[in-house]
Amino acid sequence: MSGNLSTTLIISGVLLAIGLTFLLVFLPMLTKPETDLWLGDGIFKVNIASTQDSREKGLSGTSELAPDHALLMVFPSEDKWGIWMKNMNFPIDIVWLSKDKQVVYIKKNTPYDDQTTIYKPEKSALYVVELPAGMTTTKSITIGRVAIFETNIEGAN
Fold first, then answer.
1. Beta strands 103-110 and 42-49: pairing type?
2. For the segment 2-12, what is each residue's pLDDT rounded down to a tens digit?
3. pLDDT tens track for 102-146
4. Which residues on neighbouring strands pair with residue 132, listed in sequence order?
5. Angstrom distance (rounded) from CA 157 to CA 148
């Protein structure tokens, strides 16, 4: 009888540990909005920032951005949305996209140590993509190119 109780407790403990591991490690990855973005000659894994808080945070505090990764900011409407480099640790290229996902403005190699300048496009945009510095040149991302991506955000496709 004692052996069965010990076995049951061990199995229960293992199952509990597996369940907690799933909740703490895998669940955040499953709920973090992300998608693939095709832009120029590049394909990027992007995290989506669609709330005011997530857009304001942007890449602040991030230590690096892999060459095949980006941040896609989805705004509530088209406007000349400004981007600043608050608490950034590396330079980035910033690409503004219209509601039709067409590149309308690009700011290359924005210096990460400039904490005061707000970069704004010349034309209104619904989306902003932040890429590792140099990607707009390396991947032939130019004004007029069209991005391809899907989001689960209502009104953003």
1. unpaired
2. 667 777 778 87
3. 999 999 999 988 878 999 999 999 999 999 999 999 999 999 999
4. 92
5. 10
The tokens for 60 are 């602040």
Q: How far apart are CA 38 and CA 41, in angstroms?
A: 7
> What kind and span of H or E run contains 139?
none
**What 8-state DSSP symbol labels residue 146?**
B
SS (HEC) of 73-119: EEEEEEECCCEECCCCCCCEEEEEECCCCEEEEEEEEECCCCCCCEE
Question: Could you tell me the two tokens for 134?
Answer: 């140099």
Cα-Cα-Cα-Cα dihedral sign, residues 140, 145, 148, 150: positive
Beta bridge partner(s), residue 43: 38
- Asked whether the whole model's pTM tops 0.90, one would answer no
pLDDT digits (tens, 9 = 90+) for 35-65: 999 999 999 999 999 999 999 999 988 889 9
Strand partners, 5: none
Question: What CA–CA distance (Å, rounded) separates 80 from 63?
Answer: 27
Residue with tokens 């040149």: 137
